[in-house]
Specification:
Membrane topology: Multi-pass membrane protein
Helix content: over 70%
Order of helices and strands: HHHHHHHH
Number of strands: 0
Keywords: Membrane, Transmembrane, Transmembrane helix
Pfam family, one: FUSC_2
Distance between the termini: 31 Å
InterPro entries: Memb_transporter_dom
GO cellular component, one term: membrane
Structural class: mainly alpha
Largest sheet: none
Shape: flat
Length: 179
């Protein structure tokens, strides 16, 4: 039981939680809990045994967020021209989901697909169409911020003896990390 408190992953997750919540608190953005949750979730999911794995996760997760936000904004632009509670929404959300999965890489890139679809669904079902462009931009920044915090913690707490980007070029052609 005591070993759980000393586990490096437990320490890393606690540290990223502290860093994200404290930074939002000190910069007076605690009122916008949505962005805090997005940053914190990405920071926690970004904790990896090796720093290179955190960089690879950042690449796929951020790409997924950008793709999901892009199609979320397009969906909201289309939805504003439809009547309220229109039955077209039943077909539009799955259609946009299909296009998002297809352009995210399908089964070849599950981390990107999951990030893109989660972002798309959040935007289509929870975001008001009026501020969608600004929300999409803030969501991308919040994702990036959380992932950078996780990379910083991964690098500081368990630094590798190798250069942290040694295998990064090799990973550009291969998405075996997310399978």
């Amino acid at each position: 039981m005591i070993n759980r408190f000393k586990d490096i992953t437990t320490i890393k997750i606690t540290l990223v939680t502290l860093m994200v919540v404290a930074s939002y608190y000190f910069f007076n953005h605690v009122k916008d809990s949505t962005l805090t949750v997005i940053s914190l979730t990405n920071a926690v999911f970004g904790i990896r045994p090796k720093t290179i794995d955190a960089w690879i996760f950042l690449r796929y997760r951020l790409l997924g967020t950008v793709i999901g936000c892009t199609f979320g904004v397009i969906y909201l632009a289309v939805a504003t021209h439809l009547p309220k509670n229109s039955p077209y929404i039943i077909f539009l959300i799955p259609l946009f989901t299909y296009v998002t999965v297809f352009l995210s890489g399908g089964s070849q890139s599950p981390t990107t697909v999951k990030g893109a679809v989660m972002t798309l669904i959040t935007m289509t079902l929870l975001c008001a169409p009026s501020g969608s462009n600004q929300y999409a931009f803030y969501r991308i920044i919040a994702t990036f911020y959380g992932l950078l915090i996780s990379i910083l913690v991964n690098w500081v707490i368990a630094p590798t003896k190798e250069h942290p980007l040694k295998d990064f070029e090799k990973s550009l052609d291969d998405d075996t990390y997310s399978k």
